[in-house]
Model the fold of this input.
Amino acid sequence: RYGAQFVRQSNYADVARGQTSAAYLDIKNTSNIPWYDDTTASANNALPVHMATSSPINRQSTLGSAWPTRNRPNLNFSAVYESDGTTAAANQHIAQPGQVVRFGFTFTVPSGAATGLYREYFQPIVEGTPDGALPYLGTYLEIGAH
Done:
């Protein structure tokens, strides 16, 4: 019943240590049921869909100092698009089947981090389910720290 498909993501970032940068992942709802973010989930008696760190799932990220938790970069959708991925949907907090959700967030490279290339893995999940309910898509952001 739950399904997801990778659509696109922000470009890989090259960030100075101690600096913050923005990123996003766009994921299509291939489920046969709507996805809700934190703004609409409880009013619809539904479980919210969040982007979570992965590899392994719910891993504590060193880049998430400004996130709601160290394994959830954002709790609300940044945007919801129609299936074309560019037309804004009427409701920006509910993703109907076929619509595309933008999970936008910022990350910070710690000032004490070693220079080099980091891969930060993510996957959408349905909160409150034992396994996240959505498939692992293998999505990651590559971040160059200098």
Observations:
- The longest strand covers residues 116-126.
- The beta strands are 4-9, 13-15, 20-29, 35-36, 49-53, 79-81, 94-95, 100-108, 116-126, 139-145.
- The mean pLDDT is 95.
